[in-house]
Amino acid sequence: MNIEEKCINALRFLSIDQVNKASSGHPGAPMGAAAIAYVLFNNIMNHNPNNPNFINRDRFILSIGHASALLYSVLHLSGYKFSVEDLKNFRQLGSITPGHPERDIDLGIEVTTGPLGQGFANGVGMAISEKMMSQKYSDLINHYIYGIVGDGDLQEGISSESASLAGTLGLGKLIYIYDSNGISIDGSNDLAFTENVAERFKSYNWHVIENINGNDINSIQNAIEISKNELSKPSLIIADTTIGFGSPNKAGSESAHGEPLGEEETNLTRDNLGWDYKEFEVPEDVVKHMNQIITKGNNLEKKWKKDAENFKAENPDQYNNFLQIMKNEFPEDWDEQLLENIKNSNEPEATRASSGFAINLISNSLDNLIGGSADLTGSTNTLIKNSENFSKSTPNGKNIKFGVREHGMGGVMNGISAYGSHRVFGGTFLVFSDYMRASIRLSALSKLNSIWIFTHDSIGLGEDGPTHQPISQLMSLRSIPNLNVFRPADRRETLLAWRHALNEVDKPSALIFSRQSLPDISTISDSKIDSATFSKGAFSVYDNSDDDPEIILISTGSELANTIEAAKNFDKNNSIRVISMPCWELFDQQDNKYQKNLIPENTKHIISVEAGVGLGWQKYTRSNDSIISIETFGASAPGNKLIDHFGFSTDKITDRVKKIISE
Ligand SMILES: Cc1ncc(C[n+]2csc(CCOP(=O)(O)OP(=O)(O)O)c2C)c(N)n1
Ligand SMILES: [Mg+2]
To answer: What parts of the chain have a pLDDT lower than 70?
Structure first.
């Protein structure tokens, strides 16, 4: 066995050993795709294990996240921070080798993968970022995005959505190698996946190379080199592989997919592949051979730094801008216009329109704000007006047309966020957030700062009816940890929500906006919220009590104005406070004192008013009977009729509150 084969076998056995030791995991794909990983990390990719943050590195995505053992093995042998001890702790609590790769750039893990198809879409987002940056800073950014994708990835809809977009956009720096082993968990692809993948991707405008032997280093390398030269199309290299390669009894079978080989089969595999080493043992010559990657990586970054110095000498301002962008730092006064504009009371306005206004204000000071929508640009007010569409011929455009592809948009947005050069937003109707929920959840899990814009909130959207009326979506978004969900009530709250969302470094935000016009709250109460108060998540906007009120009404978004008007009907006989709670998550983070001052423990009646499911409001109301909510799917009628019909007009809210406090 030559040294290259030996390195590949080392990757196979390190992966087998991790899974055996953990008594869980997926050995099959690592055994089949080890040669591909070797070629990428050893021969192809520009990267620096000593500095995984090297700005101009090629990005690598293991979209088949279940093959994590392979990623940890190849990062270990390439000289990243993974030690043998870390590999031995595979899948253990607190280890850096969790069941599926979790984003940590310092370790060389670019994105969190495991939910199949997400990594595929993330790479498309990264290729968009690379194109934008290399267009603008061609001396500093010029690299590829590589990924290993599997049968599962290509069966998932999100990969079709994002592949079609990548082809349309001609993202030539994107190169995926398909670990085509014909097997997934249930068995052969014949069961459910018989299309011609090559033809499918060709029709997406991809450059496709088929029939590559996935164990043949030279074939893989040649295919990648050819793909690197095809700069007008993304590339798919279909590598024929064998799941569980080398295992006499499991190779080529689904039984290799997701359970340890076990001692006996591991020994048979050792004999079969001529591997004379013990568990977790790495031969010296393998270590030495793979160590070249470190030297190569250091030299590579040194050269880049020299080029960057030269660039800096000639273009100091541009260089500083570049660094600021890559570090995601904002100019000091970036929010000046937003804060200036919250001071003015405004005519009634739909918060989706306020959001469009915010985007264009922010875009004046944040050049790296980009975004778009899933074919609802006008309705979601997501156009950056002084910019073009991002396209093959206009790579400087800031407006991304994602097409009718919510899930693909979500995965692509996360790739852009993970790349780090741009702040990205994406818009659709709130009801369709379900289509992209997996990506929203992953943004929260992997600490990405994607901004999710959801308009056409609640029954207020009117005639489109129950198919389009989000009833459960708002609360279901609130159930995702590490996601700030904002439901602002007017332009002021909208601008402040945008400001807060952009200030979050490692947390995504969902911004929920109305289709219908809403009055400016400062025209119906004397409340004028400032940015510090807003960022507490909840605050009083109307209060006739000197101290602790008898009644507290908590409302959000489009119901706030009518709730305040309803509260005024109780002025004569009751002490009453209205709280605007645009963001639960922020309120829950406040100290006890703030929370208890706003919602005192001894308050007799705490009533929530929100046009969505009530599930969860008990946390604040403490009673199931004081939740004014909707528990059906809405109806088709003009919005103002529905608001009354479902009990959210001022009169109806007043009646309900009267009833609740009399019980
Ligand atoms: C969205 C999603 N659905 C289901 C799974 C569970 N799952 C993990 S691996 C896998 C099969 C994937 O097949 P393939 O990509 O061919 O992997 P291989 O069996 O070749 O290793 C499935 C269904 C998942 N991880 N993500
Ligand atoms: Mg497979």
So the answer is: none
